[in-house]
Amino acid sequence: MNFPAYKVKAVLNDPDYGEIFGIQPTAAYRGNYLMLVYPAEQMVRSIKPDFKMVRSVDQVGVIITSPGRDYDFVSRFFAPAVGIDEDPVTGSAYSSLIPFWAERLDKNRLKAFQCSVRGGMVLGEYANDRVIISGKAITFLEGILSI
Predict the structure, then answer these.
(1) Looking at domain 2-134, what is its CATH homologous superfamily?
(2) Phi and psi at residue 62, to the nearest 5°
(3) To the nearest 10°, the Cα dihedral for 129, 78, 55, 12?
(4) 130-139: per-residue pLDDT in tens?
(5) CA-CA distance, 11 to 48, in Å (whole number)?
(6) pLDDT tens across 57-110, in order?
C-alpha cells in the first residue's frame, strides 16, 4: 500500500491521557491522528484504555507507540468514536508512524508490529513524501462496487 506521509507535531502531553490509557505517555503528537509515545513495548501491550474516555478525544483515532524489542517499533490504534474500539492492523496509522520512527531511528526501512489481539507485522519504507507498507493479509471480503 502506498500512502501520503504525515509529519506529526508535538502537542501538550495532557494529564488526561494517563487517565484514559492508564499510563501517562512520555510525549504527544498530532498528525492525521493523535499519537502518544511510551518508552517501552510492554507498556503499549498492557494498556487497557477506557473506550468511553477515548471517544472524548478530539481526533478520529488515537495511536499509541513505543520502540520495540524485536521490531523497530510497536503500536496500537483506537477509534471508538467511529465504532472501532481497537483496529487489528491500521494501514493509515503508518502514514504518521513510519516518518516519525524513521527520523528517530535514522533509517528509511522499518519493521513494525501492531500488537492488537489479532496483531500483525508491517514492513514500511519512508520514501520522501510517501509511506509504502506491506505485510501478510487475509482476504475477508470480495465484491464489486459500482459508482
Answers:
(1) Diaminopimelate Epimerase; Chain A, domain 1 (3.10.310.10)
(2) -130, 125
(3) -50
(4) 988 887 766 6
(5) 23
(6) 888 899 999 999 999 999 999 998 888 888 878 888 999 999 999 999 999 999
Q: How many whole angstroms separate alpha carbon 136 and alpha carbon 131? A: 17
List all residues 6 or more positions away from 57 whose beta carbon is below 8 Å from its beta carbon. Answer: 20, 34, 81
* Residue ranges per structural domain of the chain: 2-134
Give the mean pLDDT of the chain: 90
pTM attached to this predicted model: 0.89
Q: What angle do CA 135, 69, 78 make, to 5 degrees?
A: 60
Burial grade of 76 (CB within 10 A; 0-12, 13-18, 19 or more): buried
Alpha-carbon gap, residue 63 to 50, rounded angstroms: 14
Q: What is the pLDDT of residue 136?
A: 75
Reduced to 3 states (helix: H, G, I; strand: E, B; else coil), residue 60 is coil
